Amino acid sequence: MRGRIAALVSLAVVAAVLCVLPFLISDYNLSLAARVGVFFIAVLGLDILTGYTGQISIGHGAFMAIGGYTTAVMSRDHHTNLVVTMLVAFAICFVVGFLVGLPALRLSGAYLALVTFALAVSVPLLPLKWSSFLGGRDGVQTSHEVSNLWLYVVAWAASAILFVLAWLILRGRVGRAFRAVRDSEIAAVASGIELPVYKTLAFGISAAYAGVAGSLFVLANNGFAAPDEFAIVLSLQILIGAAVAGLGSLWGVLAGAAFVGLLPSVSSSVPVIGSAHGQDVVFGAAVILVMLVLPDGFAGLLARIRRLARA
Amino acid sequence: MVTAATSRIEGLRNGAAVPVVSLVLIACATGLLVGSLRSATFAQLTVQGLALGAVYGILALALVLVYRATRVINFAQGELAMATTYIAYQLIQWGLSYWEAFAATLAIALVLGTVLELTLIRPVLHRSAIAAVIVTVGLFVLIDGIVNWIWGGDFKSMPSPFGTKIYHVGGVSISRLYIGMFVVVIIAALLVWVLFRFTKLGLGMRAAALRPAEAALVGVRVDWMLAVGWGLAALLGAVAGLMAEPSQFFLEPTLMQPILVYAFAAAVLGGLDSPAGALIGGLAIGVSLNLVVQYVPAISSELQEPFAFAVIIGVLLLKPSGLFGHREVRRV
Amino acid sequence: MPVNRKKVAALIFALLATAAVVGTAAASHEGTPGVTKKQIVIGGTFPFTGPASLYKTIPAAEAAYYAYVNAKGGVYHRKIKDITLDDQYDPSQTPAKTKQLVEQDHVFAIVGSLGTAPVLSTWNYLNQRKIPQVLVATGDAYWGQCVHKALKLCGGKAKPWTMGWQPDYPGEAKVYAKYILKKKPGAKIGVLYQNDSYGKNYLNGLKTGLGSHQNQIVDAESYNLGDSAQVIAAHEVAMRTHGADTFVIFATPQATIFALVDRTAIGWSPLTLVNNVSANRVFQLAAGQNGADLNGIISSQYTASATTQASYKGVKLAKKIIDATGNQQLQQSLALGDANIMYGLASAWTFVDGLKHAGKHLTRASLMKSLRHLNESKKNTNPFIYPGMSVKTSNKRTFPMEQLKLIKWSGGAGGDWHAFGTIYKGIH
């Protein structure tokens, strides 16, 4: 009961802050807050896959690319409503994720990481090949741009919806099946869980989340989709965000998303972390430290604090 | 005792697969020779492919060594190779000659790789495969950041180790650089082979990788062997970086990023636990990339890395242990 | 449990307080953004790192010129502060950096941003907000074509706030076409071009210049930024297989250096022309060091040469300004003949010229009006431009520079570019 109340209070606090924030911060900082929302969705998606079913993906940038380009191309060619393009991105990426999940069934741990890494490197190069449709290096521009406020509202509304969706999925039978898969595949099979279905389902859902994040990512970048936006570093950053976040905590995902989303926006006048390279050093060092010292990430840290407080 | 056991087991596992694969490879080599004799363009691209393929192969060998020792795929192998190349650059700036810096860099790389394994990888080895992967991902980003921070993200010049002379054979131009790249890689690979086959250290490393429990019983310091494995891999990575740099005429931080992808493809193709496979895989990837892009119109140069991805996924689905590998890819 | 909630509440309060402070700190200024009694703040995006970082001496030279002007009191007692950000020549990074300049640093104008694709990725944003995007370091024809007209290639809207500076690429390509047709009438032309709007514009310009002889282009190969030297070599092998005996390179510096070295490495010696954005003695020296056979390659020039025109007053002034920076690397680069430095100085000179004629009451509109009515000739000649050339704009003349001089390399690996022939006029 106490846990339930605490969780609801957490949610209420976050929701309240989000509603009040636009009135307090500048327009530019609103765009940064929106960016955190984008990474919230991406990190959440990866958390579902890696945290709950134990399948690693270093390739979520590829799904973000697919989602982002879907939005950009649909808007450029058909002037489609941007929220509609996000729904389409969700659907397309779910299918693609599912398809990627199929061969992934036969691969374990490091091999899956390798394949997703190669996927992350390859997918952003495809617009260079089909440059007449996908814009090549010149990229694809949406038909109109959105204001920072629009971006903030839509990013966090989508975050809220997708968070609730994740919660519903994970508390039910599907979630239990996911956890069983992660903990022991042999036991899961023995208890009658259809491994292939749940594993590929997890991939699909995770990719769909990344797709929506990708749409917002492009919109946050002036509505401009280009190959270099989705370079391998993006996939690595999402993985870092998920590792820092840890598992099963809203605050964890928020912390991970804020970490990855805000660090690159620190003003260049700030020494060390103001430069892109200082930030890479921080990202790399942070995730290594987390793995060595705090393997359960921010969520684990909070859990530990709670346990200490109870004692 | 350990020697007999390991080689018998390896021999049993080889079975009938190797002769078939060897035949296929001989057929391919013959095809390359015939093609080269008939077309200067074909020959030109083959020569280029072999030189680059040697670099892919030596980096793939590094990946294989790490995988054999610790069952980890080191995603930072390429960035580590790049960083050690920058160390060589700095040594040259400080006054060393190219080959002095080369030797010193290899030694530094050996130490660096060993230290990394001991401090960062060892603590997470006993946990899930994912944990070590995430650490190497963190290393990728960290090393990239450090190099950019110290040296900057622009172009640096290093002296050319083999000069700029070009030999003209038939209608084909072979630069001394390509010959040098190939020869250096072959020498490095041979030295590694000698190390493993004829030295006590090499025997210990093989034993520690294949049969850690038994090896510990006969007095092999398994922990150290694994760390040295990483050190040796970093050393080979340094060779890869130092040979890759002159092929691009400049040193800049993204030097090894595409090469890492091709090295992955080479390692998977050859078998993640087969050193010979890694080298042959590297040559195969190098040559086929050049030829495919030229002769298959649909596959243009943008699709080189997707091609490598296709090789990886194809091999893992069809013959997961690769051409020369033994291990199972899945645990369950 | 209660302890935790308090901690959480405190954290949130701290966050809100910080946000409020940050928010008010970033409040908008009164009057013209970026202009005060004492200062003009401008900004631009440049490739300090990444695949085009061989251009990084351009912003360094511009900074040196502004420092020189500031040391003499500035323009109408306002000193120029130039905030340059690194976008790595990546059009997906430029929007964020430009936004930062506009919305965080509140710059008066975006000056000198480098790269066709980067400028294209931000021109909508800047024109919508009526922010000058001037003297962009790219020669695409759009900057002159889209000033008044809402053509399709302008994205359907005119871009009056965007302005170029250097001679346009299609014009340059047409000069090369004329040269080829005159020098080598039956030439079989192979073209290497960058696979983006910059490269494609050059290729189209060449085709237009060749006119009915367009079919003499036997092979046009596109390469992608960041391609390895071996990929470039493979393109050249393909061109040679198609029978090309003339080689036109529309590439940025790294790829050009690859192309020149590879050309020699594969044993191919066609008549070779290089676009002027990669014709810089420093780049060619790098190619020569790696074995490229440079003699006879052709390009064009519009800035004064620090090496072959060392006694020209503009070059002497350039040396003085660069020496004043105390930056050894920059000094060495100029001594080697780095054309980027002359370019940066010349472009900054034009901007200051524009500021001077915009008047003491400086607004964005007055700057644009001044820049659209430039007359850098005769007594008001830009000292860093090739002697005899001028920079002029008017209501009809939307291309500031329309003159080029052909140059040819001689002297081997340690040689130099030498100008020949007349000054081509009205290239656009």
Description of the structure:
The complex is a heterotrimer of chains A (311), B (332) and C (428). Chain A is mainly α and 311 residues long. Chain A has 15 helices and two strands. The longest helix of chain A is centred in the N-terminal third of the chain and has 27 residues, at 27-53. The model of chain A has no long low-confidence stretch (mean pLDDT 87). Chain B has one domain (2-10, 17-318): ABC transporter involved in vitamin B12 uptake, BtuC (Orthogonal Bundle). In chain B, a hairpin with a 2-residue loop joins strand 1 (166-169) and strand 2. The longest helix of chain B is centred in the first third of the chain and has 31 residues, at 40-70. The relative contact order of chain B is 0.18. Chain C contains 15 helices and 13 strands. In chain C, a hairpin with a 5-residue loop joins strand 12 and strand 13 (416-424). The chains are: A mainly alpha (311), B mainly alpha (332), C alpha/beta (428). Chains in contact: A-B, A-C, B-C. At the B-C interface, helix 3 and helix 12 of B face helix 9 and helix 10 of C.
Query: In CATH's first tier, which class of the largest domain in chain C applies?
Result: Alpha Beta
Q: Radius of gyration of chain C in whole Å, from Cα?
A: 23 Å
> SSE order of chain A in H/E notation?
HHHHHHHEHHHHEHHHH
Distance between the termini of chain A: 18 Å
Strand content of chain C: 15-25%
Mean pLDDT of chain C: 92
Largest sheet of chain C: 4 strands, parallel
Biggest interface: A-B, 49 and 51 residues
Helix content of chain C: 40-55%
Number of strands of chain A: 2
